[in-house]
Amino acid sequence: MNTIRPCGCKGVRTCLSCESDFHIAKPSLQEEFQQLEPWSYCVQCELLQPGWDTVRVQEAHEKHIKEEGLPLPGILVQERFLSAQEGTQLIADLDALPWDISQSGRRKQNFGPKTNFKKRKLQLGSFAGFPRSTEYVQRRFEEVPVLQRFQTIEQCSLEYDPSKGASIDPHVDDCWIWGERVVTVNCLGDAVLTLTPYEVQHAGKYNLDLVPQYEQELRAPLLDEEQLARYQGKVLRIPMPNLSLIVLYGPARYQFEHSVLREDVQERRVCIAYREFTPMYITGEDQQKGDPVRDKSQLFWEIKASI
């Protein structure tokens, strides 16, 4: 079904509602991934350790043998990035703004320019900055070494509702407009990010063919074929605890597809995704197109009180 359905899904994207209403049979990604060799990221080791269940892997940290861990450059999980009080207030502030339906059982609040990934066209559109109530989150990025000089040009709140089977299918974030660092702040609920090696189908998918233009500027160099072979046949599980910060960059960002399985959403989950420009739109050939967006991204607006 290529048309947009009442629930917001279209194409291969589905939720429990449209699967029931339109008799759509959706294969289980979890069952597919569980046929692979599971490894979970231990936040304390900063290494992948054998096992599917991320909670059990964290609990077994004292038994981990460093030499047996599997490294993957380009992962940061910072627990307690937000305090419990900040998380509660942030959810209240987000819920004071309107939510729009999205695909796969999600809702969203999107603040950023209009983008056409296929045609590689950027428009300022109605972008006028970000909610003032979220400003401190962006300011706090300056305290994280890997996020130095990160300038947000898109901020997207995402709500995952388990009653709708909310999820996000495996993908690589677009490489034409979104820069290296893929940032997520968890405001409510625990979840897991599942990574699998991306087997290139054609160079243009996800606009990955543009990466060589700025590959020398990456914070973690991409893996060669021999290094990538270590991850074949494996599924990698990254914990996303409530109130935490997760950053993908380098190999984890470009050479693996990431997804959120519906089975890993056990309660309402709300996160905020942050994206930066690629170098072409900051200092490169498309700087003039990017400057109006970067100017607007300096602005934070107050929510107007209802009368």
Poorly predicted spans: none
Q: What is the helix content? A: 10-25%
Dominant shape: globular
Structural class per helix/strand content?
alpha+beta
Fraction in beta strands: 25-35%
- Count of helices? 8
Average pLDDT, all residues: 95
Number of strands: 17
Largest sheet: 7 strands, antiparallel
Protein described:
This protein has helices at 16-21, 29-33, 54-59, 84-95, 135-140, 225-228, 250-254, 287-296; strands at 37-42, 47-50, 75-78, 100-101, 106-111, 114-116, 121-123, 130-131, 154-160, 168-171, 182-188, 191-197, 234-240, 245-248, 256-260, 269-275, 300-301. It has 307 residues and is an alpha+beta fold. The chain has a single domain (29-301), classed as Jelly Rolls, CATH 2.60.120.590. The protein is globular, with a radius of gyration of 19 Å. The mean pLDDT is 95.
Question: What's the arrangement of secondary structure elements?
Answer:
Layout: H1 16-21, H2 29-33, E1 37-42, E2 47-50, H3 54-59, E3 75-78, H4 84-95, E4 100-101, E5 106-111, E6 114-116, E7 121-123, E8 130-131, H5 135-140, E9 154-160, E10 168-171, E11 182-188, E12 191-197, H6 225-228, E13 234-240, E14 245-248, H7 250-254, E15 256-260, E16 269-275, H8 287-296, E17 300-301
Parallel strand pairs: 1-13, 8-17
Antiparallel strand pairs: 1-2, 3-14, 4-5, 5-9, 6-7, 9-16, 10-15, 11-14, 11-16, 12-13, 12-15
